[in-house]
Every structure is written in structure tokens, then in C-alpha cells.
Design brief:
The protein is mainly alpha-helical. It is built from 17 helices and 2 strands.
Amino acid sequence: MFLDLGLGATLNRFTSQLLTVKDYKRLNSTASFGFLMFLCLGVLAGLVMVGIGLFLPSLIRGATATAYSRGFLLMCCFAGMIAMRFWGYSARGLLFGAQRYDLVNAIQAGGAVLRAGLVVAMFLMVPSSGLVTIGLCYILSAIFEASSMWIFAKRQIPALRLDIRTIEMDTVKEVMNFSVFVLIMAVTTMLIWNIPVFLTGRLYGAEAVAFLSLALLLLDQVQQVAGGFGFSLIPVAGKYGALGEAEMLRMLTIKGTKYCAILCFPIGVLAVIFGHPILEWFRHGFGWTWALLGILMIPYLIRMTQTPAISVLIGAKSVRQFALGQIVVVVVIGLLAWLFGEYLRMGLYGVALGAAIPIFFFSFIFQANYACRQIGLKWSNYMIQSYGRVSIGTIPAAGVGIILLRYFYPNSLLMIAAEGLVCILIFAVSAWYFELAADDREQIYAVFGRKGNIVIKDGQKSYGGDL
């Protein structure tokens, strides 16, 4: 994943900008460079996997020579799959930049169906098939996905031409300079999520990792919602950034954060309220870890819901200082988690606090301020408009959840789901009538009821916009 070098999101950004201004010369230069880089990176990633396949058996005790050879062949199959996926990443970046998420999702879904179908068919026809057969099916589905991405990218962008001779050094420098900071963001984000787990294992052993990991697992499900929603704003921001539409960038940042909060707040709040029965359902005796979830939830929720603001920066502005700021956060998390957990003898609660405190201050103050300065938005206005009504609108659902937990404690997964659904419905009603403005409701109606969306600009309504 790290061999992507941040080029995926970078291609997304530059494609949307260059398509907007119809600069096909630079677009072809960018696409050709991206294709060449992903071609080389795919070969490198494949060789890394083959190398792992050569050395991994030495770490496994008691396996037979046949198991070693099959394991190596399986790693070779995955090496081929990864190489093919890398070759399709540049085409995927072009499709994302053209805002054709539907094509990317359809291709990836088709690849998953094809992979499952091939595995079933092979095992029905050849009952003795093993893991290597599954690996070959993965390669075939990866070939399908990569080739389909390029076919549709060419159809979506007729002016697209892949030619190494079109690569310009100015384009290469610009793309690589930006991708470096995107890569730093990706690596530091991974560390922010995993340093508490690493420290827990180092300080308290492997068994303690499970206690913290369950809380992070629930947080990760919320992150999936925020990440997917925010990523879709990169090409939209790139388009308006290329057009110099600063007001649209501000509106994308505010409304993107608010919509993300509407999606994530009820999930996060209810995860904390019903955390004890949920974790007890996972495994009896794990219920006490809901306190870890409660400590981590608020700072991580703020961080997650600001994903659209960061996506706007990736699409239209600079992320240099944000990426460098995350390096500082990683160091502070490591120091505080060790200080609270080991030196102050607070155990896992100390590790969780050591992660929560720097994430809260970084997200609430630095991250939000940095995004607002970049797009000319006042920090207080951003926080009030993005979180004000959503925070208040969460109270009725949270209150009902606490009452249900107090008087009808859920002892099964079915009861947890039923009570959670009641709270979600209450939040949905509150969001629709209280948190969404009339403009928001009209835009949602337009998405499902008419062709195109409504964009309100200078007090006038127009159809066919991105928002």
C-alpha cells in the first residue's frame, strides 16, 4: 500500500483540475507519468511479495516441504495480483478525477463477483484444488479490473494519450512534490491508529492488544463511512480550485463536514452507549473495554468528520503543513501513551488517554484552523455551522439510548440491533427537520427525484451541479 507513494490521490486531484481547464497536454503528461510509475511500482511490489514468499517459510515451524512450496506459489500468485492492481491504479485515479465513481465501483464489484465465481467453479470442476488455485483466480480478477479501468478511462477521456514522450519534467516535479506529502499523511494516519496497539503489545503483552483492538475496530467502522464520503470530494474540490471558486470550496468544507457529522455522530454516540453489550457479545468479559471506546470516541469522531475539509485541501490547496503536523502528533502520541500507561501506571486507560489528548487538540484546533486559513474561512463559523445543530440533534437519540440501556438492557445481538435502530430513526428525524437546512433538503430531493443536483449560488438555484 505504501508503494502507492501517494500518487493515487495526487492523480485524482490533477486529473480533475486539468479536465476542468481542458489542458489535455498536461493531462496526458500526468497520466503517462502516473502509468509509468505504477508500472514500475507494480513490478517492485510483486518482487517484494516474491521475496516475502522466499523467507516467510523459515519463520513457520513444523510445515512440510510441500506446504513450503505451495506457500511460495501462493505468494507468487498474490505478487501477480498486486502488480496488476498497481497497473490499474493510474486508470482508477483518472476515473476518480473525472468523478466517475460509479464506474470504479461497478468494476471492483464485478471483479469481486468474478473472483468468487472462479473460485467456486474451479473447486467444483477440480475438487483437489488448493490455495494456489485461489491465488490464480485472484490474478484473473485483477487482470479484469485493471484492463476494465483503462478501457473506461479511455472512453471517459477521449483525449487521453499514453506516451512516455509526452512526460514533462515540470509536471513530474509538481506531481511528485505533492504526492510526497500525501504519502506522509497516509503513513502518519496509519501510525496514529496503530501506535496505541503497538505500545499495548509491547508493554502489556499480546492478550492486552485484543482489549484495545476491539474499541479501535468499532472506531474503524465509523472511519470507513467518513473516509469514503470525504474521498469523493477531492475531484470536486479540484474542479472548483481550478476555476478559482473560493466560495464553493468554503461551502464544500462546511457542508461536507456537517453531512459527515450527520453520518458519523449517531454511529459513534450509539457505539459508546451500547458499547458494553456490544463488546460483551463479541466475547464475555470484554465489556469493561467500552471505557476505552468512550475515551477515544470524541477525538477520533472530530478527526473523522473533518475528512471532507482535508479532502478539499488535497483537491484544491496545500497539505504540506498538515502532513508535517501529523508527524508531530505521532511523536506526541507515542510519548504520552508511554507516560500515562507505564510511568503513571494507568494501564490501558493511560494508553488510550495518551492517544486521545493529542488527537483532540490537533483536530479541534490545528487541523480545523489550518483548513480554514487555506480557504479563507473563519474557524468559529466553520465549527458552529458544521457541528452546532448536529451536536444538539444527537441529544434526543442519545437520551433514548440511555433509557433503553437502563431499563431494557440488550442481552443479545438482535436486541442491540433493534434498540440501536430505534435511536437511529430518532436521529434521522431530528437530522431531517432540524439539522438540514431547506437548501440541503432540496438538494437531497434533487439527487433522488430529478436529474442533477441543485446548486445555490448568489441566491439563485441552478441544476446539474456537483454539490
